[in-house]
Amino acid sequence: MKKHIPNTITCLNLISGCIATYWALCGIYDIALLFIIVGAVFDFFDGMSARLLGVSSPIGKELDSLADDITFGFAPSAIVFDFLKSQAEQLPWHYLCYVAFVMAAFSALRLAKFNLDERQAMGFIGLPTPANALFWGALIVDRGDWIASLPYGVWGVLALLAVSCWLLVAELPMFALKFKHWGWKGNEIKYVFLLTCIPLLLLFGIGGLAAIIAWYVLLSALTKR
């Protein structure tokens, strides 16, 4: 019985991603973001439960990647797609909004590389897909109206989309919030990051999630960890 628990949690992550995608395509971005966050919670607990129960398996690893690409690849792509579609009059070609789904492809590539890359046991190489999804969800929910009001706002979104896709597969070391011990030494960057997350959330609200991910990328680039 216990061997099915992690895979069940992973499937809940996948279902959350499907629900998030539905609401994204309905233009209800805040609910879409909510289910991306719910999926992230399930994603955290499926790996933890597999380790605690000692039931890790190859099929669980593959299922986890599939679920992650739905929740953290396809769902945020759907948010960006629907947003660009709603601003299609600013685009020279209406079908340019479909470029948003390139992010889902890069997310799948990021996940495939993670499964094969043994360097990512205690850190990441490239932007993790959950972080990327939270960035886009929070950005569109909190700043979507403001971006839409800008003369070239959609072009900024497309440029940021290109940067996001690059970050997913870039050979850029990024730290993970994994602790071998709870002391300050060796964990300085992690504690600094966690402490600065609090004022960002208090200052910007939902938009603070996007600011936190941007700060995470910048801090990783500055420290190369």
The total of beta strands comes to 2
Rg (CA only): 18 Å
Strand order of the largest sheet: 1-2
Strand content: under 5%
- Per DSSP, the total helix count is 8
Low-pLDDT runs of 5+ residues are none
Helix fraction by DSSP (H/I, runs of at least 4):
over 70%
- Major sheet, described briefly? 2 strands, antiparallel
> How confident overall, as mean pLDDT?
89
The structural class is: mainly alpha
Order of helices and strands: HHHHEHHEHH
Terminal-residue CA separation: 39 Å
Principal-axis shape equals: globular
Q: Can you tell me about this structure?
A:
By secondary structure, this protein is mostly helical. Helix content is 72%, strand content 3%. The protein contains eight helices and two strands. The protein has helices at 5-25, 29-53, 58-86, 102-116, 129-149, 153-169, 188-204, 207-223, and strands at 123-125, 173-175. A two-stranded antiparallel ribbon has the order 1-2. α1 packs parallel to α3 (58-86) and α5 runs antiparallel to α6. The longest helix is centred in the first third of the chain and has 29 residues, at 58-86. The radius of gyration is 18 Å and the shape is globular. The N and C termini lie far apart (39 Å).
Note the topology.
Layout: H1 5-25, H2 29-53, H3 58-86, H4 102-116, E1 123-125, H5 129-149, H6 153-169, E2 173-175, H7 188-204, H8 207-223
Antiparallel strand pairs: 1-2
Helix pairs in contact: 1-2, 1-3, 2-3, 2-5, 3-4, 3-5, 4-6, 5-6, 5-8, 7-8
Q: Would you kindly provide a brief summary of this structure?
A:
This protein has eight helices and two strands. By secondary structure, the protein is mainly alpha-helical. The relative contact order is 0.11.
